[in-house]
Amino acid sequence: MLAVQVEKKLGDFSLDILFASEGGATVLFGPSGTGKTSIINMIAGLLTPDRGRIVIDDEVLFDDAKGIDVPARRRHVGYVFQEGRLFPHFSVKRNLDYGRWMSGHAADPAATAKVVELLDIGHLLERRPRKLSGGERQRVAVGRALLMKPRLLLLDEPLASLDAGRKADILPYLERLRDEAKVPIIYVSHDAAEVKRIATRVVRLDGGKVTATGGAELLSA
Amino acid sequence: MLHLSPQEWIAVQLSLRIAVVATVVALPFGVAIAWLLARKKFWGKSLLDALVHLPLVLPPVVTGYLLLITLGRRAPVGAWLADHLGIVFSFRWTGAALACGVMAFPLLVRPIRLSIEAIDRRLEDAASTLGANGFWSFTTVTLPLALPGIIAGVMLGFAKALGEFGATITFVSNIPGETQTISAAIYTLTQVPDGDRAALQLVVVSIVISVAALVASEWLSRRAAARLHGE
């Protein structure tokens, strides 16, 4: 349901990536600085590949041969950024509603309640992002991406900026996310321990290329 | 105690009206150009930047003269505007507002541009992944976050428009009740034998308004920044 074939020159090295995902949580695993964030930026539409093809659910989002490049705002791909990137001038509640607000859809209190419960952020709704801890911020960021009802969820090293204790706190939420949210996940990470519990599938990256694909056993290699 | 003659009160009211109109009309252009300069790359960008800052560097009288030869009643653009749209600037308060707006423009644009540049573009990226197009991203993310800078720009521009003298007097002359602003009135009074006392009173009024504008600007700016970040 997600097929990615992209090439992109990035400074000193080039990306030449081919992988597909059929659902669950696909982890893009590799050392830092190997262009993993660039790959999901290309899936989200924030970065344009030099060449390639990106298809989600039979919709072509990018195809340089045919001149197709769907803008980010129309891709319906949720993105949880490494730093959260919550809007500082909006409350948590308004941050959560932002995606729905932009899409013009009617309020869905049931869906909102479910996501709020899943991520345990109900007591934070009236707060501003400034007043949240790192872990709380990331959970709200996940909630915000989920509530736009995306067909794919991208997470860019969401735990990277947290200390070990916070990471351990959030991992259960991410597991629940994988199991209950019914949306395919692409999870970028360089930390094997972190993704062992989450990954249903692993795509190993090195030197700008896919070096292996398989299950969680690839994380120990 | 202040005891202003009718002519002096008119000068004060006229100044305020002209400064408000100049600032309000200049604002949308100021925001648009500040955004262009902050966010976009295009051919002629340096030229636009220079043009925007020109009134800051040119002698005000020169700016006034340039306005006169382009927008005066018999000048090319001025004649067209008068004949087709009924807009006349010569010897009218509208001309004074235009001159003040032009002189205030660089002071309006600069803080707004800096404010927009300081906004993390990645927030705008996040907004676009959430479905916001350029317009919505601008109005819901960029504009609110740029508000402190906009307030500062508006106040600076207003203060400048209030005190503008050289360009105004060159473009639309010094007509009591129509184009004689506070500055022009003070100048006229200093040229007249017994005008000193009246001039001093207007000077006091001018200082009070300017200080009030500065204080209001600081307070509004800080309140906006605090509200923005949820204090």
SSE topology string of chain A: EEEHEEEEHHHEHEHEE
Uncertain segments of chain B: none
3D shape of chain A: globular
Q: So, the CATH homologous superfamily of chain A?
A: P-loop containing nucleotide triphosphate hydrolases
- What is the subunit organization of this protein? heterodimer
Q: Proportion of β residues of chain B?
A: under 5%
Overall morphology of chain B = globular
Topology:
The complex is a heterodimer of chains A (221) and B (231).
Chain A: E1 2-10, E2 13-21, E3 25-29, H1 36-44, E4 51-56, E5 59-63, E6 68-69, E7 77-80, H2 92-103, H3 109-119, H4 134-146, E8 152-156, H5 164-180, E9 185-189, H6 192-196, E10 201-206, E11 209-214
Parallel strand pairs in A: 3-9, 3-10, 7-8, 8-9
Antiparallel strand pairs in A: 1-2, 1-4, 4-5, 5-6, 10-11
Chain B: H1 6-39, H2 45-57, H3 60-71, H4 76-85, H5 93-117, H6 121-129, H7 134-163, H8 166-172, H9 182-190, H10 196-228
Helix pairs in contact in B: 1-5, 1-7, 2-5, 3-8, 5-7, 5-8, 6-7, 7-10, 9-10
Question: Could you characterize what this model shows?
Answer:
The complex is a heterodimer of chains A (221) and B (231). Chain A is an alpha/beta fold and 221 residues long. Chain A has a single domain, classed as 3-Layer(aba) Sandwich (Rossmann fold). Chain A is built from six helices and eleven strands. The radius of gyration of chain A is 17 Å and the shape is globular. The mean pLDDT of chain A is 89. With 231 residues, chain B is mainly α. Chain B has a single domain (6-228), classed as MetI-like fold (Orthogonal Bundle), CATH 1.10.3720.10. Chain B has helices at 6-39, 45-57, 60-71, 76-85, 93-117, 121-129, 134-163, 166-172, 182-190, 196-228. In chain B, α2 crosses α5 (93-117), α5 packs across α7 and α7 packs antiparallel against α10. The N and C termini of chain B lie far apart (42 Å). Chains A and B meet through β7 and α2 of A and α6 and α7 of B.
Summarize this structure as a short list of keywords or feature phrases.
heterodimer; A: 221 residues; alpha/beta; Rossmann fold; 5-stranded antiparallel sheet; globular; B: 231 residues; mainly alpha; MetI-like fold
